[in-house]
Every structure is written in structure tokens, then in C-alpha cells.
């Protein structure tokens, strides 16, 4: 698939590496501080919300396969439940905590286990099948990992949704948490919709059209506004 560029498709500034608690590097977006200033100036809710979380920010472990695997595991369950399943899977695959922090989960490790073994590690049958299919795509070179940084958001989504178990939501989580694209608005995300309802509409139901219209005011940093709305609902940072 050829690389394509569109306005707003790339991060506004380079990412920065920072140490994790165990010394393994994680990456944070170089545009984050500017995004926060932008949102605080333009949005009354963000002006109150952003300062509540201090220096906390989006971070990436820098590994594409791990990010997509965690996104699949996190589908339709809470952050806490997803972390519990992830920890159990790492134990079953004999991946150390330090390696996980450095995002070293490899497709080959998943392919050493069959679906029943992955289910025993806490995955549903469907998620075990999805994770196996994802691992095969990576092992067989069916995804263009080396081209993703140059491709626009929609081109990457198109490639990823061809993999079983990856819909638009999962592809958008990948854009936010791995490629750290600044302007993603995941309208299929229940947490985003709930956050908008709670913070902007006093708990009243919110339509996709209303959420999209509100999100236009966050551009070109819709990913950042989304992250803070997630944090407003759950004290655990969203992390893939």
C-alpha cells in the first residue's frame, strides 16, 4: 500500500523517551504540552480537567504488535480487567514483567500456544483466535510496519481492519497509543462518549453527531482531549 500524506495526519513534534519505573524506556508525544495549552485556551472543560492530572500523559511502549495485542484484549472490558488478562497471558507465555514494560512481546511467542492454551490464560475463544491471527500477520509480513510512520491515519486503519478482530476502534487505539497521532477522535469508544456526556452534557445521552461536532473544537489535538476524558472516568491511565 503506498504511503499517503494528509493535513493533520502526523504528530506535531517528535516523541520523547523517558524512563519507566523499571528503567525500560517509554515514549511520550513531543506535542503534548502544546496540545494542553491549545485545549485549555479553547475549551472550558479542558481548562478545568487537564490541570487535575499534572505531568501525566499518553505514553507508548514502542512496539506495534504489543499495542495491537493489548487493544484486542481490551475490547469491551474495563481497563482493570484488561490488565488482569494481560498479566495472566504474559505469565502463560513466560514473558517477564520487565520485558512487558519494554514491550517485547513477540508474535512468535503467541504462536507457540494454540487457542485452548490462550483461553486458559484468560482470553475468550474469539480473542484467542484474533490474537493468533494478528501474530500470523506479523510473522508472515502481511502488514507494512516499516511504512506506517509515513502513511496517513485512514490508510493505516484500512490496512489494520483487514485483520480478524481489528475493527475501526482497535485501529484508532493503535493510532493513538502506538503511532501517537494527535488528532484521532474514536467515536466508537464508549469511554469517550461517556466522558463527553458526563463532562459536557450533565450525564445526558450524547449522539455521535454531537460528539463529532464537539471534537471539531479540539482539533488538531483530538487524541489528547480524548485521553483526558478517559482519565476523568478511570484513575488508571489508559495504556496499550
From TrEMBL:
This is DNA-3-methyladenine glycosylase II. PANTHER family: DNA-3-METHYLADENINE GLYCOSYLASE (PTHR43003). Keywords: DNA damage, DNA repair. It comes from the Bacteria. Residues 73-234 form the HhH-GPD domain. It catalyses: Hydrolysis of alkylated DNA, releasing 3-methyladenine, 3-methylguanine, 7-methylguanine and 7-methyladenine. It is an enzyme of class 3 (hydrolase). It comes from Pseudaquabacterium rugosum. Gene3D superfamilies: 1.10.1670.40, Hypothetical protein, domain 2 (1.10.340.30). InterPro entries: Alkylbase_DNA_Glycosylase/TA, DNA_glycosylase, HhH-GPD_domain. Its EC number is 3.2.2.21. The lineage of its organism: Bacteria, Pseudomonadati, Pseudomonadota, Betaproteobacteria, Burkholderiales.
Amino acid at each position: 500500500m503506498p504511503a499517503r500524506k494528509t493535513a493533520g495526519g502526523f504528530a506535531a513534534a517528535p516523541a520523547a523517551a523517558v524512563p519507566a519505573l523499571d528503567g525500560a524506556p517509554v515514549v511520550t508525544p513531543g506535542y503534548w504540552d502544546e496540545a494542553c495549552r491549545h485545549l485549555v485556551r479553547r475549551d472550558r472543560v479542558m481548562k478545568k480537567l487537564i490541570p487535575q492530572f499534572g505531568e501525566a500523559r499518553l505514553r507508548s511502549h514502542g512496539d506495534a504488535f504489543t499495542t495491537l495485542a493489548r487493544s484486542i484484549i481490551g475490547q469491551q472490558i474495563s481497563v482493570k480487567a484488561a490488565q488482569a488478562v494481560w498479566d495472566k497471558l504474559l505469565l502463560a507465555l513466560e514473558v517477564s514483567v520487565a520485558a512487558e514494560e519494554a514491550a517485547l512481546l513477540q508474535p512468535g511467542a503467541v504462536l507457540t500456544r494454540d487457542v485452548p492454551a490462550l483461553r486458559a490464560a484468560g482470553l475468550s475463544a474469539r480473542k484467542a483466535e484474533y490474537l493468533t491471527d494478528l501474530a500470523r500477520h506479523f510473522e508472515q509480513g502481511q502488514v507494512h510496519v516499516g511504512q506506517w510512520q509515513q502513511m496517513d491515519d485512514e490508510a493505516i486503519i484500512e490496512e489494520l481492519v483487514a485483520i480478524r478482530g481489528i475493527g475501526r476502534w482497535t485501529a484508532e487505539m493503535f493510532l493513538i497509543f502506538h503511532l501517537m497521532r494527535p488528532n484521532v477522535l474514536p467515536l466508537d469508544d464508549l469511554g469517550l462518549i461517556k466522558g463527553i456526556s458526563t463532562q459536557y452534557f450533565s450525564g445526558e445521552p450524547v449522539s455521535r453527531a454531537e460528539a463529532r461536532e464537539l471534537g471539531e473544537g479540539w482539533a488538531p489535538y483530538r487524541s489528547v482531549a480524548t485521553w483526558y476524558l478517559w482519565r476523568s472516568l478511570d484513575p488508571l491511565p489508559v495504556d496499550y
